[in-house]
Structures are given as structure tokens and as C-alpha cells.
Write a structure and sequence with these properties.
alpha+beta; globular; single chain; 3 strands
């Protein structure tokens, strides 16, 4: 087995937390607490990778570890 790191976006809304793996299309999860959503997205990523291996899709996407988070002023 090999260890990987994936970029994950976690957002809080009125229903709890939502997490999206930025490197695996369609891989997302939710939870009532930050800890729960973190555990859930970790499991979702593991299952996603298992499915890739089962389908003989051995390609693991590479990504830049650099992330920029900022605000953009917009007049509407």
C-alpha cells in the first residue's frame, strides 16, 4: 500500500459540514461536525481509490500542493 495526500475543501453550512475532494471528481461527503466530515471524506477517498483499483484504473491524479484561498471584490 502507498500513502497519498489529497486536497479537500470543507465548508460549513446550516446543515453541518460538506467536504469535496478537489482531486477526485465526484468524491464528496458530509457530516454534522468537522471531525465527522473529516472522517467521512477520508473513507470516501479510500473507497474511491478501491473502486479505481478494482476497475484497473491505477492512475492516481497528481496535483500541486499549493493552494491559494482569497476573496474577490465584486460589485453587483
Amino acid at each position: 500500500m502507498k500513502d497519498y495526500q489529497f486536497r479537500v475543501l470543507i465548508e460549513k453550512d446550516e446543515n453541518g459540514y460538506f467536504a469535496k475532494c478537489l482531486d477526485l471528481e465526484g468524491c464528496h461527503s458530509e457530516g454534522e461536525t468537522y471531525e465527522e466530515v473529516f472522517a467521512n471524506i477520508s473513507e470516501a477517498i479510500s473507497l474511491y481509490l478501491e473502486d479505481m483499483k478494482a476497475d484497473n484504473e491505477l492512475f492516481i491524479p497528481s496535483f500541486s500542493t499549493q493552494i491559494s484561498l482569497t476573496t474577490v471584490p465584486v460589485t453587483a
